[in-house]
Amino acid sequence: MSHRQDQVRLLRSDDIYAIERLLRTSEFVYQRFTLNELPSLLARYPAAGIGPDTGLYGFLLTQIISAPFAWISGFGVSWTESRNHTQILSQLLERLYEVLPGQGVRYLHYSGNDADHDWLRSLLLTRGFAPYHQLYAYDKFDYKVPSEGNQHVTIRPVDIIHDMQALLQIEEACFDDFWRYDPPAFTDIKATHPYFVIVELDGEVVGYQFNALDDEYGYLVRIAVHPSAGGQGIGARLMTEAIHFFEQAHASRIMLNTQEENHRAHRLYEWFGFIRLQQKGFVLRKTL
User: Fold this and answer.
1) pLDDT per residue over 244-255, tens digit each?
2) Closest CA to 71 of 43, 34, 107, 24
3) Average pLDDT value for the chain
């Protein structure tokens, strides 16, 4: 089928239902977001779609968690256009390459959980993306905890305005620049994630943690403790609180990814009964 008469365009908030339909029916789909996050992704970050004036048969979403770094957050093609998915991907990427630099983006990333069996990874490697990082994936299937962690700290819901400066300081101290969240990203996380807490030690914010849920699956997205407060059982306390949250939500499986070199985090996860999966996660990068 020729697509020369079809339009590649930037998506808007009123494209939500068309994207949700493609997520349910696509043979080729990549989803790095929950449906609760979809409205904010479309409202805040560049996204491209393709289709006739009255429809949509392909989409590509991005997220800028901290300029100049952006991530591919979703891709889908309708079942009827599956045979053209490589062509559609190229068209959507080219459209986003035109607009992302205007948002201050210089690097576009893609991440997956299984480098050996990721269909989108192979396509992106032939389109200028290159390996950038390796990740480990962990799963947990129970709610057992080996320790309740430090009981002398305070865990409370994040106050996104009052706590923002402390969150940014923790980001800078704990993560490489391309992993860091900026204020708009933290604001979106607060609005779309069911669990987002900070931890205080002697009245000072020293860490945070947030989770996501997708049906019966739980995602432990991020635990961070400022290095100045390390070694005091604060990470264990945050992990315990997270597992209690997933138990109350009846999550059948708790999943997470972490950087290959983050050995302290590996020890924490394995102590709490997370099982490292055989497949290797990864990050690809393209310089725009």
Assistant:
1) 999 999 999 999
2) 107
3) 93
- In Å, how far are 49, 85, 88, 164, 213 from 78, measured between CA atoms? 12, 9, 11, 40, 25
**Can you read off the two tokens belonging to residue 267?**
């020890």
Which residues make Cβ contacts (< 8 Å) with residue 160, sequence separation at least 6? 186, 187, 190
The number of residues in the chain equals 288
Residue 181 CA to residue 175 CA, distance in Å, equals: 10
Give the orientation angle of helix 234-248 with respect to helix 263-271, to 10 degrees.
50
pLDDT at residue 5 in the model: 63
Nearest to 71 by CA among 35, 30, 24: 30
User: Closest by alpha carbon to 257, among 151, 153, 133, 158?
Assistant: 133
Average pLDDT over residues 74-92: 95
Can you give the pTM of this predicted structure? 0.85
Q: What is the CA 19 to chain-centroid distance, rounded?
A: 18
Strands (E), the chain: 7-10, 28-31, 47-51, 58-66, 69-77, 107-112, 130-140, 154-157, 195-201, 204-214, 217-225, 253-259, 275-287
Cβ 271 vs Cβ 252: under 8 Å: no
143 neighbors 246 (Cβ within 8 angstroms): yes
Strand spans (E) along 52-188: 58-66, 69-77, 107-112, 130-140, 154-157
Residue type at 286 in one-letter notation: K
Tell me the per-residue pLDDT of 133-185, one tens digit each, with 9 for 90 and over.
999 989 999 999 999 999 999 999 999 999 999 999 999 999 988 899 999 99
Helix (H/G/I), strand (E/B), else coil: 188: helix
Q: 136 is written with which tokens?
A: 């480990």
